[in-house]
Design goal:
The protein is mainly alpha-helical and 126 residues long. Helices cover 70% and strands 0% of the residues. It is elongated. The two termini are 15 Å apart. 32% of the residues are buried.
Length: 126
Amino acid sequence: MLPFERFKAWRLCHQLAIQIYQITSGFPTTERYGLVSQMRRAAFSAAANIAEGSAKRGEREFRRYLDISLGSLSELAYALKLARDIRILEETDYRRLDQLRNHAGTLTWKLHQSLKNPRRSTNQPK
């Protein structure tokens, strides 16, 4: 197991990225360099920044990467909403993905908050 894999927040972001890649493969080809690319980059960024940040020195720097991850999840929230509103994403898929995104965001935020507590170690599973 890689060190970042111990974080529940990373595991959910990873699952979200997989599902975003799968669902966007069915989007119109006209969106390949638009919405598909943006959604995939945002989903990838959410998980990748947790992974990268966990390897940095110190909790302060890790929190900075978690902030970026949270921003990517927010960007993805809008992209999902837009895809639903322009009718290239089914309502049921939107609800499922947005729920997963929200859960990943909640755990990422809790991980961020836990790093502010000096009694907690980043070596503990979150």
